[in-house]
């Protein structure tokens, strides 16, 4: 019997998908629930699993655009299962005497990474080192998951005496071009970004944050925090906590327009912009206002790993009332983040740089981060946008305020 494999629906309003890559080849014997292929939609990457066991055959090619519900492959359930490798007689391997000195000098051989969409894509840490040393991606062989370039790949290359000049000449002396088809996710992202610019009255307000207090806290308690909760304490959890407290005081920043109505959210579902191999995704930390720093860090880490491995789901990205994006991991000093519709505001973080500041009439050096709030002026006024960003700044510079709704402990004691 021939079992037909159809394209599942990735979600509402999605009528077609693109076959990203086949995970099985024609003639392979597949078991039930084996992953057959990856499909790209304009919202997420999903896998198609076998509904029956049998011999596999494709009916579409990688890169083809196919309609939801159409047949893309078949499984012949009458196909004979190949004999188990374990059942075949084992040949005795000749014994080889290994000398101790050979063991010491032997180096582990890394298996070549399987070519995929992640091949040649550097991790954020690797990208930073590559930019600092003018190392192009083409000059590095990635050994990470799916061929991703890791930090160790770059440091190993530099240790071997990589010459940026020589490598640049070998790459620059060409006039070749390369074309690649836009993925559904990239096309949808482009449409959404253009619509935001055309359909919202977007403005951006800026401020600067003295990160001394947070950096001192991290330095003092990072080891105990990691030992107790199993995650590192990063900037993102502090920013998320400060944002949730400020949103309670400025509800318009946590609202959105729905037709002729403004929807005010009584909860804080914070979207965290993450750079994934196939583009930008924004998974959501739900009810972040009720979470501790450790719970926020754990949630963000889990979502980031899913995004990196393209395991993120539509449920992970749906909803969201406010978004935080961190361009600082790529070295950004200042930017104007673009709103993630249908939300009305987004906070942009940037890199921390030591800068001179005037404190009590004296010039001192402090670690400073520029922050930016882009907002929809149709429902958020200047008073609210500036007040929100100032409140976030105050709580980051005095983290104890996060425990008391953005107020000083003395103000709570005095009932102010």
Short description:
This protein is of the alpha+beta class. Helix content is 30%, strand content 24%.
Structure commentary:
It is built from 11 helices and 19 strands. The chain is an alpha+beta fold and 416 residues long. The protein is globular and about 80 Å long. It starts with a strand and ends with a helix.
Structural class computed from helices and strand pairing: alpha+beta
How many β strands by DSSP?
19
The amount of beta strand, in percent, is 15-25%
C-alpha-based Rg, rounded: 26 Å
Shape: globular
Detail the poorly predicted runs. 98-115
The CATH class label of the largest domain is: Alpha Beta
Topology diagram in text:
Elements: E1 2-6, E2 16-22, E3 29-30, E4 35-40, E5 45-49, E6 54-58, E7 65-67, E8 71-76, H1 100-105, H2 124-133, H3 151-159, H4 164-172, H5 184-199, E9 202-210, H6 212-229, H7 235-249, E10 255-258, E11 261-264, E12 270-272, E13 274-276, E14 279-281, E15 284-285, H8 293-308, H9 314-317, E16 322-326, E17 345-349, E18 352-359, E19 362-376, H10 382-397, H11 409-413
Parallel strand pairs: 12-16, 16-17
Antiparallel strand pairs: 1-8, 2-4, 2-7, 3-6, 4-5, 6-8, 9-19, 10-11, 12-15, 13-14, 17-19, 18-19
Looking at this protein, list some descriptive labels.
single chain; 416 residues; alpha+beta; OB fold (Dihydrolipoamide Acetyltransferase, E2P); Dihydrolipoamide Transferase; Chloramphenicol Acetyltransferase; 3 domains; 7-stranded mixed sheet; 4-stranded antiparallel sheet; 11 helices; 19 strands
């Amino acid at each position: 019997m021939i079992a037909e494999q159809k394209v599942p629906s990735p979600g509402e309003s999605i009528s077609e998908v693109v076959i990203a890559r086949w995970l099985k080849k024609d003639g392979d014997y597949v078991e039930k629930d084996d992953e057959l292929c990856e499909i790209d939609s304009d919202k997420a990457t999903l896998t198609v699993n076998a509904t029956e066991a049998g011999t596999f055959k494709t009916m579409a090619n990688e890169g083809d655009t196919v309609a939801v519900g159409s047949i893309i492959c078949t499984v012949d359930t009458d196909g004979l299962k190949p004999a188990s490798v374990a059942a075949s007689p084992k040949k005795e391997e000749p014994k080889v005497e290994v000398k101790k000195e050979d063991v010491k000098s032997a180096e582990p051989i890394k298996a070549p990474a399987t070519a995929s969409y992640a091949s040649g894509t550097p991790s954020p840490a690797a990208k930073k080192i590559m930019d600092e040393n003018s190392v192009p991606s083409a000059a590095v062989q990635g050994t990470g998951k799916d061929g991703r370039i890791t930090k160790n790949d770059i440091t190993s290359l530099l240790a071997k005496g990589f010459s940026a000049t020589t490598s640049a000449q070998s790459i620059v002396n060409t006039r070749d071009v390369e074309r690649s088809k836009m993925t559904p996710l990239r096309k949808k992202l482009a449409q959404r970004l253009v619509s935001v610019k055309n359909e919202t009255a977007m403005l951006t307000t800026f401020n600067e944050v003295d990160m001394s207090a947070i950096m001192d806290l991290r330095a003092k308690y990072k080891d105990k925090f990691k030992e107790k909760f199993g995650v590192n304490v990063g900037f993102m959890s502090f920013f998320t906590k400060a944002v949730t407290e400020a949103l309670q005081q400025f509800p318009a920043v946590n609202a959105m327009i729905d037709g002729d109505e403004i929807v005010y959210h009584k909860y804080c579902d914070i979207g965290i912009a993450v750079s994934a191999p196939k583009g930008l995704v924004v998974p959501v930390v739900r009810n972040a206002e009720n979470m501790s720093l450790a719970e926020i860090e754990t949630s963000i880490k889990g979502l980031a790993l899913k995004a990196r491995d393209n395991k993120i789901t539509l449920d992970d990205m749906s909803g969201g009332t406010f978004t935080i994006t961190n361009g600082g991991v790529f070295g950004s000093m200042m930017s104007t983040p673009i709103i993630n519709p249908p939300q009305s505001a987004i906070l942009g973080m940037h890199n921390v740089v030591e800068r001179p500041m005037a404190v009590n009439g004296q010039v001192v050096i402090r670690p400073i981060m520029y922050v930016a709030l882009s907002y929809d002026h149709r429902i958020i006024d200047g008073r609210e946008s500036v007040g929100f960003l100032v409140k976030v700044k105050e709580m980051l510079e005095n983290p104890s305020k996060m425990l008391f709704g953005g107020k000083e402990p003395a103000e709570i004691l005095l009932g102010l």
